[in-house]
Amino acid sequence: MNVTPSDHVLLPGLVDLHAHPAKGGSVFGVDPDQHMLAQGTTAVGSQGDAGAENIDDYVQNTILASSTRVRLAINASKVGESTKAGCFEDPADLDIDACLKAIEQHREHIWAVAVNVSHNACGTTDPKFVMDAGLRIANDAGLPILFGMRRPEDWPLDDQLKRLRRGDVVTYCFRRTPHCIVQDNSVLPEVKAAKDRGILFDVGHGAGSFDFNVAETAIADGFIPNTISTDLQAKHLDQSPPHTLPLVMSKLRAAGMREADIFEAVTSKPAQLLNLPANTDQVTLRWNSASRSLFDTSGQSRIGGEWELVGVPRQL
After folding, report:
1. What domains are defined for the chain?
2. pLDDT tens, position by position, 66-101
């Protein structure tokens, strides 16, 4: 489906694969109805906001209490994102048995296991230990991993990617630092090889994970992200303009991604990953070619127009 700058486009309710919907219990959490559904996102995946120790509260107070459809990538750490410390800084928080038990109790609400091996998440904990534990959980539970990579000077990207399995999802794919998937105007061979064998790649824009130069280089080289997501979190709430999925979609269009691919990456593809039932929600977007400049997370700008939401998809 394509639109011209003067057109409106009708889409199924938007699906944000990677954000932080939480009405409590997560230091990154934002109210999904107030800050996601109101901006056209009718379903959202949580990246590790809850682990085995706090999943009961998360299901009761966020998933079941929200009009937005929420699915959880359960954190391999039992404390989830409930503390300001990195979720894997204490190796004792990697409780495989507790995580597997939580998955069995709440399987209908869980789509993946969140395994972030970044230095921020792990502190001094060995990232290979974290990934090994996450893979054990995912293999035993029959779930994919939502994976955050480690900087290559600590652990070569090729080694990290070779441990992943078909259907696992790598997020933060268009970062400039501390890891980057492009070099010398092309996508790294190990990244292309991972995608060719069925590893999926997600944008995960966030506060530091979207670089226009990286996105443009990758897209021009034929590397198209499978899903587009905001990584919306509490630190975004004071931003102007609001950090929304239509805004991130607009940035991918400015970076050269085809509209048809963009629409799939925020509807059918993430819906399939989240195991969502048929979606009866609809949203209407209009293209504003005279919109403000678009900025990446390092302050680079592009002029490319913007999709804007027409109305709220459901009565809040």
Report:
1. 13-281 (3.20.20.140)
2. 999 999 999 999 999 999 999 999 999 999 999 999
